[in-house]
Amino acid sequence: xxxxxxxxxxxxxxxxxxxxxxxxxxxxxxxxxxxxxxxxxxxxxxxxxxxxxxxxxxxxxxxxxxxxxxxxxxxxxxxxxxxxxxxxxxxxxxxxxxxxxxxxxxxxxxxxxxxxxxxxxxxxxxxxxxxxxxxxxxxxxxxxxxxxxxxxxx
Length: 154
Known about the structure:
This protein is of the alpha+beta class and about 150 residues long. Helix content is about 30%, strand content about 25%. The longest helix has 20 residues, at about 1-20.
C-alpha cells in the first residue's frame, strides 16, 4: 500500500510540474472556420496611418491557406494593453511592420495580426476582441517567407 501511495504522489507531482511549465503561454492558430475570402497585408506608416498604395490584396485560396498555416501554431503570451501600445508606437520609428487582416464574407468574423520586421507577431485573443497575444519568440524566417512570397516592398 505504501508503494502505491508513493507512486500516486510521484504521478501527482509530475503532473503539477508539467502543468505549471506551460502557465502563461499557449499555442495560437488563425481560426479556420471563417471562410476567408480575402487577405489584406498593409504596412503601418510612420504616423500610424496606412495608405491604399501600401497594401497587397490576396484572394487566391491557396495563398490564403498557406498564410494561415504559416502564422499558426506558435506559442504566445498574454500581454497587457500598455505593452501592446508601446510595441505598436515603436513601429512608427522603423518601417517593415505589417497588419495582416483575414476577411470572410461576414466581415464581423475577420481576424488580424500584426507582424514586425524582427519576426514578433501580435495576435487577436481567442475571442477575437483585442490584440493581446504576442509570440513568445521572434520568427525572422517567417517574416522573410511572407514578405518574399507576396513581394512586400512598400
